């Protein structure tokens, strides 16, 4: 399910990137999300041993696959927010 969560988020951000102003750096966010989606897809393909390809439960610390997908998105959004703050501060410092 975390594969589906990452793909849906990447598709949504890519669609928003097309229709919103470029000041939000959605291209950078989309690139990070597509990277996550591809990494999760490769992980699924390499680790596939039979049975269901999309699972709703995991064997790790987070047992719900949807919660795991959302948890994987949090660091990406944090890095994107730091990037936005940095570019905004950099723009203010260069205009003085």
Provide an overview of this structure:
The protein has one domain (2-94). Helices cover 73% and strands 0% of the residues. It has helices spanning 2-19, 26-47, 65-94. Helix 1 runs antiparallel to helix 2 and helix 1 packs parallel to helix 3. The protein is elongated. The model has no long low-confidence stretch (mean pLDDT 87).
- The domain count comes to 1
Q: What overall geometry do the principal axes of the alpha carbons give?
A: elongated
Number of helices: 3
Largest sheet: none
Unreliable sequence segments: none
- Roughly how much helix do the residues carry, as a percent range? over 70%
Keywords:
96 residues; mainly alpha; 73% helix; 0% strand
What is the strand and helix layout of this fold?
Elements: H1 2-19, H2 26-47, H3 65-94
